[in-house]
Amino acid sequence: MLQMVGAVREGSRESSPSADMTTPKRLANRYQQCLENMWLDICEIKAKYSEVDVGVGLPDYPPSEYIQRTLSDVALEGNEYLQYTRDQGHLRLVKAIAALHGPLLGRDIDPMTEVIVTHGAYESLHTAFLSLVNPGDEVILIEPFFDVYKSMTKLVEGTPVYVPLRPSVESPTSSADWALDPQELESKFSAKTKLLILNNPNNPIGKVFKREELEVLAALCIKHDVICISDEVYEWLVYPGAEHVRIATLPGMWERTITISSASKSFSVTGWRVGWSVGPKDLIDCQMIAHQNGDATCGTPVQEAIARCIELELSRIDQPDCHFTQQRDDLLAKRDRLVEMAREVGFKVCVPEGSYFLMVDWTAFATKEMIDNGTDATSDFQFAIWLLKNHHIATIPPSAFCEENKHLVGNYVRLCCFKTDELLNKIKTYFASLKPLEDV
Ligand SMILES: Cc1ncc(COP(=O)(O)O)c(C=O)c1O
Predict the structure, then answer these.
(1) Which residue range forms the structural domain that includes residue 162?
(2) Atom of ligand 1 nearest to the CA of 124
(3) Is the pTM of this model over 0.85?
(4) Is residue 185 within 8 Å of 217, Cβ to Cβ?
(5) Which atom of ligand 1 is the closest one to the Cα of 10?
């Protein structure tokens, strides 16, 4: 496989690799372990064949106009918002975050010491890894996991320890059908375990962990004195029927949990790069040391704009016109439409309880022999490539989110429902070209 420097982000507009992007000779050792990039092969093929993209994980239309207008207002308001702001987070924003998350976490949050603003959730994760993991420390990653967890663990010379979500039934119809095996989970904890990385709701399955499942995780964290990094960027995208329990609210967990969220998902502005962590002062202090010696401070206008947006949403948090509720309801309708479209054509759908992703089982359309392209790629990658070449539909192979248990998701591809109605219509047309094998 071609190697290249840095990550090709699955959602990046500039995600097509160029042929000359090989490993630079002068690259420092610490990045040598982070070169593997599973998106590369598929990016090249996608650039050539994709006509409709139902995989890429970002909104393809802007959020509510007021959100955009808030930023343009701020940008024109004079010098105050055009200069550096407080390193740990713009004052108005940390206050807004504390006011928003206090009730969610069931405690008063000190905006000055228990919140840090970062360049997206990415930097919250990065500063947590940099400031908490020593070489040789073990980091438990729940498969399938958001792909950067692994490279960030390796970058700080930690050891990733994988534990899979396993389907509890032969053909899962809901993300709730994927669960951790408590004994297997327990076997992964040791004296060397430093962090548990939880992603709730989870990308790519859309699982929302139940209270009982979180209690098992919490008990193990407490028993082994492990810090939990809870990536909850999809916290506002939990659909009716599921309840988003924040692990930091369980007894004994606040003091050992960093809860991460972001404007990328809450306000659908992935390009603004505003994220944050909320947690006990000593853990936020650790992140702050990494932040101050790296990115130092985040953009002032985007922080001011997000602060104003949060303030507005807080003033109508329980009302139907609250952006978080409206966005969730819009996406619920889109989720249901995509589920129906996928089922109609013959995919077996695993309906997500949260996030904007859904996993569909593709095995009705092709045998492993049909998609075998002579490489050692996993079957989901081979199907995704087959689908691109034969039907011009781009999807995401979920084994890219796994390391040791790729086989568990080999029969699936991940779709994203955060698409305009026009694009969903177009996807429907392209789906119509697919015929289940038994009908051929
Ligand atoms: C689970 C998860 N965590 C973190 C991020 C990164 O979010 P941000 O854009 O705030 O950096 C993503 C983006 O797709 C994600 O899916």
Answers:
(1) 65-315
(2) 11
(3) yes
(4) yes
(5) 14
